[in-house]
Amino acid sequence: xxxxxxxxxxxxxxxxxxxxxxxxxxxxxxxxxxxxxxxxxxxxxxxxxxxxxxxxxxxxxxxxxxxxxxxxxxxxxxxxxxxxxxxxxxxxxxxxxxxxxxxxxxxxxxxxxxxxxxxxxxxxxxxxxxxxxxxxxxxxxxxxxxxxxxxxxxxxx
Length: 157
Description:
Helices cover 24% and strands 40% of the residues. It is an alpha+beta fold and 157 residues long. The chain has one domain: Hotdog Thioesterase (Thiol Ester Dehydrase, Chain A), CATH 3.10.129. The longest helix is centred in the first third of the chain and has 17 residues, at 7-23.
């Protein structure tokens, strides 16, 4: 975010993005929580349960993708105060299966602010072991954040 935006506006933007995430219907299927500690940073917590397993008894790849994409996406959108961004490409690297417990996806903005942004994410177990990582490109859309009910109606503080 640029210096002219101001700390109060930045904080309000981050809280509104958290509310937007919570309002997404997909999160009724994948109960998770988003926290944006600073512009360009995201943290998502998710509990792996047997309902998320594939036939071999471990978390399905959709869990990895959702958490990693969301963390990178919100880290990127935290850098854009006025428009919703869209994932245009995402690379996913799975390193080990997960069968239970809490996962934490950490997202970080890497570069870009005008039209295309790059962000990366890591998926960690509760004890800090990395189980996957991802990197994506995100593009500003023509959708104003203020037009999205979950963002516009959120309390700023």
